[in-house]
Design goal:
Elements (H helix, E strand, L loop, with lengths): L6 E4 L5 E3 L9 H4 L14 E5 L8 H4 L4 E3 L2 E2 L12 H13 L4 H9 L2 H7 E5 L2 H11 L12 E4 L10 H4 L1 H9 L6 E6 L8 H8 L3 E7 L5 H7 L6 H13 L4 E8 L7 H14 L3 E6 L4 H14 L4 H7 L8 H18 L2 E4 L11 H7 L7
Parallel strand pairs: 1-3, 3-6, 4-7, 7-8, 8-9, 9-10, 10-11, 11-12
Antiparallel strand pairs: 1-2, 5-6
Length: 375
């Protein structure tokens, strides 16, 4: 049986050990005040303590062109469109095989759909900081590249500031290790205002390395955000976090990623979003259209059927033969954001085809954005 609200840990004998003192993980009395909005009940989420053998993923193994660290496996925010679900099933299968006496893991593997296990069974890499410190001290010649300004991104397959971070502080421990080194280039991707808790260590890193935050925000509409990202922090709390980071001198890029065709791509709403984050101090805005790989498709398309049934046929047709929306839509989206960012004085970045510099007048693209390439 799982232990809702508590922390499940695998003992050396493979049995689940419950830490009673952590049963109040999200109790306001323990944290004194709510630095991070909690959306929905947390009692249906189990946290498994795990011992990582490695914490750094090199570019060759991921194909992403930069180093990465993920302090957790899985994410409690439950965003319907999340692409990172693919990584969780492997971890759950491996843990279950390594701990055959652990009934909870076996039950999770057999009874929970993979997309739901990603949100409800979170693996906490308790020794992440120690492993990273040892790796950076005794690493290979290849690792020297990381200390020579190769990029390191934290949070490529999880949110490093999801609710568990408030108690476990795994991400903070990783940052404290990075603050011991010089000449690094560090990016953190999150949608949580909890990142502002660590402004002190971000400042320490910035003294000898570069550090930036990519804050994810796809809509300012609170009710729409709740449907799309049921347990994530509210849009307004993220804008406030952006302001705090900017005031502290930490550069922030806002990731409007992914843009959901027919749902979050209304031109006037996007203009309001860009204007709002520019006024709050964003250094830049990045954007890309929704991509649907296999694991994300299994969750997202049924979600569309239920929540936006009038769009279901268009989505299934558009994504029938690949993970990307059509070229016309992506080109129009890129041109539209370029115009918005120029108007509001923020840098623009596009995570798709940066070599394609196609542009179009703002009004013409904006009026057709929802229609072109998504019908």
């Amino acid at each position: 049986m799982s232990n809702p609200g508590g922390v499940d840990r695998l003992s050396e004998r493979g049995r689940r050990v419950v830490r009673p003192e952590q049963a109040t993980l999200f109790d306001e009395g323990t944290t004194r005040r709510r630095a991070l909005p909690v959306i929905g009940e947390q009692k249906d989420i189990s946290y498994y303590g795990s011992r990582a053998r490695g914490i750094l993923n090199n570019p060759e193994s991921t194909g992403m062109g930069f180093w990465s660290i993920n302090p957790y496996v899985g994410c409690a925010f439950g965003c319907a469109y999340c692409y990172a679900r693919y990584a969780h099933r492997y971890t759950l299968e491996r843990s279950s095989a390594a701990n055959p006496e652990h009934d909870g893991l076996r039950s999770d593997l057999n009874e929970l759909p993979p997309w739901l296990a990603f949100e409800r069974r979170i693996f906490v890499k308790e020794n992440a900081a120690d492993v990273l410190r040892q790796t950076l001290r005794t690493g290979s010649e290849r690792l020297l590249g990381l200390l020579r300004d190769e990029e390191l991104v934290i949070g490529t397959a999880t949110d490093p500031y999801q609710p568990a971070e408030r108690r476990f502080r795994i991400t903070r421990g990783v940052l404290e290790v990075l603050a011991e080194h010089v000449g690094m280039s560090v990016t953190i991707i999150t949608k949580s205002p909890l990142v502002t808790r660590d402004i002190d260590v971000l400042h320490r890193i910035s003294r000898s390395s570069s550090i930036q935050i990519h804050l994810s925000l796809i809509t300012l509409d609170r009710e729409l955000a709740r449907r799309l990202e049921p347990r994530a922090p509210t849009p307004e709390s993220r804008v406030r976090a952006l302001g705090r980071l900017a005031a502290a001198g930490i550069p922030v890029t806002v990731n409007v990623m992914p843009v959901l065709p027919g749902i979050t791509d209304e031109p006037r709403q996007l203009e309001t979003l860009v204007r709002t984050v520019a006024d709050a101090g964003a250094a830049g805005v990045a954007a890309c259209a929704l991509r649907l790989q296999s694991a994300a498709r299994q969750r997202y398309l049924p979600f569309i059927e239920q929540e936006f049934p009038d769009l279901a046929a268009r989505y299934r047709s558009t994504y029938a033969h690949g993970s990307d929306v059509g070229d016309r839509y992506r080109t129009g989206l890129r041109a539209f954001f370029r115009g918005l960012c120029a108007r509001h004085g923020v840098r623009f970045g596009y995570y798709d085809s940066p070599d394609d510099d196609t542009s179009a007048p703002l009004g013409a693209v904006g009026e057709q954005l929802v229609i072109e390439g998504f019908s």
